[in-house]
Structure formats: C-alpha cells, structure tokens
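Retro notes (design track)

What went well: tokenization of the new backbones is finally stable.
What didn't: we kept losing track of which sequence belonged to which structure.
Fix going forward: every design gets posted as structure first, then sequence, in one message. First example under the new rule, 55 residues:
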C-alpha cells in the first residue's frame, strides 16, 4: 500500500524576508513626547484661564 502526501498550498514568498528583518513596532516615542507636552500645556492653560476667571 502506497501512502501519498499532498502538499499544502504554497507559502507566501514575502513572509520569509519580513521575518528575517524582524519586523516590529515602529518607533513612536517622539510622537508620544510631543503629544504629552501638548496635553500638559493645554492643562496648564486651562487651569490658568480658570484661575483668572474665578471670583
């Protein structure tokens, strides 16, 4: 009795190079720092504006 194994569908040829490059998250630390700074500035301005108008 002969056993035949059918091959699976062919592999994606673009996956191997991507895995070799160690694809991962992009460096977004600069954006996070800018966003944090903007939010802190808005918070300070809002508090200063609130203090100025409070009786």
């Amino acid at each position: 009795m002969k056993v035949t194994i059918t091959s699976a569908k062919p592999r994606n040829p673009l996956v191997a190079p991507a895995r070799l490059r160690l694809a991962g998250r992009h460096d977004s630390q600069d954006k996070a720092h800018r966003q944090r700074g903007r939010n802190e500035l808005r918070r300070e301005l809002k508090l200063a504006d609130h203090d100025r108008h409070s009786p």
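Added context from the reviewer: The first helix runs from residue 15 to 20.
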